[in-house]
# Entry
Amino acid sequence: MMVALLIQSAVTVAAGSSPAGSWNAVLDLAGGQLPFVVTIGRDTRRWKGQLCNGDSCQSFSAVRVEGDSLVLEITDYDAIMKAALRADSLVGYYHNVGSNGPRTIAFRASRGRPRATTGSKHLLGRWDATYFQDQGTSPRVFEFRNGSGGFEGWIISSTADYGPFAGAVVGDSFAIGLFDGSFVYLLTGKLQGGTLRGTFHAGLRTQTPWTAVRSTGAPHLKSPTEVTGADTTERLRFSFPDLEGRPVASDDARFRGKVVLLDIFGSWCPTCHEATPALVRLYRRYHARGLEVVGLAFEATGDTAVDARQVRRYRDKFGIPFPLLLAGVNDNESLAAALPQLHNLSAFPTTVFVGRDGRVRQVYAGFHGLATGPHASPAREFEDEIERLLQQRGE
Amino acid sequence: MTSLGFRRLGVALTLRSMIFVAPASLTAQAPTPVVMERAGYLAWLKHAANSPLFAVAQRPVGTGLRLGPPDADVPLEGVAEHRLTGDGGIVRLDGPTEKEQSGGGRSFQLGTYKLFLSSSPSGPVVTVFEPPSGKQPPGYYPYHSSLVFIGPMLPPEQPGKLRVLGTDGIEVEGTEVGAVLVPLGGTTRLRVLRIPLGGEESELEIFFRDGSNGDGTYPAGRFVSLIPAGAGKFRLDFNMARNPFCAYSAIYACPLPWRGNVITQPIRAGERYMGGGLEAPEVEGDPK
# Structure
C-alpha cells in the first residue's frame, strides 16, 4: 500500500493518444509495485523506446504498435512486454520463458514522469544488511544516494552488485526497483530508530525480510575469491560445443601452456553484460603473451537453437573475439554437473583463473569491487592476477 | 478454526487489510494476475518446443541410451540408430553421420524430434519432444474466490533440505520451510517446501492431494504456490493449482505425494485433468 501511495504521489499526469512520450510504469509483484519508466519516441521510419531505472536507461530492441497494443521487445533477455494502449494508460504483461515454463507479470503504466524524491541524510550512505530466509541469514550491503533522478540505491552481495535501483522516498520509507527485462527486483524499507527494516522482492513472488545497520567499515561480505572453491590437485577439465556445434575442450592445443580465463556467464545476466567488455579488453591486451579466454554460457531455455541465437547476439553486441561455448542452463544442477571440479559455483558471472599448468589458481565470483563500493570494477585485480600467472611456468 | 489456521479471504476485514494488493479475489471473476499467469502458461503449453504436451520420452542418460530403431531404448519413428552417452556434465550424441556434444542443459535436433537435456543430482536426463501439433492443454475450473486463503506459516516439523521431484519429474533440492493449516476437510496441515528457481528467486510450493483427484483433477495430486502477503501472512489460492507434467504425458516421472498434504474435501479449482497421464503413486500408510 505504501508503495502504491508513493508511486501515485510521484506522478504528474499528461494527456495524449499515441504511445509517444514518457510513461510511469509498474510491474505488479505479489508484494508490491516495482516502479520504472518507459519512454517511447519515433523517428521517420519506426518506433523506438527506452526502459529506465532512474537515470540508467537501456533501449528496447524493438517497439511496435499492433492494433491497439504496444509491444516492447528486449531480445537480450528473450523478453517481451505487451500492453493494451489507451489514451492515458498501458495495461498488459511482461513475459519471458525459462526451461520449465514462462514467467508472466502484470505490467501497467500511466502517462507522465515521476517526480524525483530525495532521501534524507538519515537514509543515505552505506548499510550492512542481513537477509532472513527460512532458518538462515545471508549478508548484503546497501548503498543509497541522491542522484540527478532522485533517490537511488545499490545492493551488493558476496557475488553480485545490483543497481541502480530507483523509485521514491517519503520521509523515512522508500520503495525502489530494478527492472531491466531480466532482473525483477524491488527493495522496500523504513528507518526505525537506527535500524532499517524492509523486504527484498525478487521476481513475482519471492520476498525476503531484511534489517540493516550503518556500516562500520568492517568487512560484512565474503570476498569474491572465497565464495567458490576448486579442486586444484588436477587440471581443470571442460568440453562443450561452440555456437556452431564444434567441441572445444581444455585439452585442445590452443590452451596448452597458456593462462586461461573461464568466463561463466549468461546472456540473460545483466552483470555479465558489465563484465564482458572488461574481459574483451583483457583478452586483447594479454592474448599475445599467452592468455586465452573462453566463455561458458549457461542460458535460459535449454533449447540449443534459441540459446545459440541469444549467445550470438551477445557475441556480436560486445565484439567478443574469444570462443563462447554452450555449457548448460542456468540452474544449480546444470552448473554443478558441467564443472564438477568447482564447488559452490553460484554467481553469474564467475571468472576462473587457470594457470599455465592447467590448474585452477583463483575463482572470482561476480564482478564488483567490495572495497570501493558500487561500480568498482575488479578489472585491475584481474590484471594483477593475469600478470602473476603469465610469469609462472607450466608443467 | 484455530487462530493459526488459514481463513477464507474476505471473511474478516482485519485479515483482508493485511493483503498488500487489492483483494480483487472477493469478486467472482479471476483477478488480472491470475488470468494473466494462466494465459501465459497455457500459451507455453500449446506452443513451446519443450512443452510437456509434446514429450514422447524421458530417460536418465545413465551409461548410455540407444535411440531410433524399434528395439532401441528410445524408439523414434524415422530416425536411424543414434547413441546418447554421458561423461560428467557432457552428453554426446553419435549417429551414422554426425557426432555432437552438449552440456547438461542443452538440446539436440534429431530428425523431427527435439532432445532436451536436464541436469539432476543423479546425472543427466533426456526428454524427447515431437513438434508442437495442436494438442490442447486441459484448462482450468471456473474461478472460486472461496478457495483463496490467507494466514501464517507454522514452523517446519523437520527443517532441512530434501530432494523431491519437481513438476517436470526431475529431482530438485528443496528446503522444508514450514506448514499451513487450511479449513478444508476439517483443518488440514499442508507442508511447504522452498524450491529454488535460480538467482534470488524461489517458489514456496505445496504438493497436495484432494478429494477431486481422479474425478476431474489429476490422480497423483497438484502443485500450488504459497504467496507471501506481508505482515507474516501468506496467500494460498487453489485456483492457481497446477498439474505435474506427468498429467500431460505418461513419459514423465510423477512426484511421490508428500507425506500428509491430503485434503479430504474435493478442490474443484485450478487446473483440470482429462486423462493421459499416470495413475497416482501409492504411499504406504498414507490415505489417498
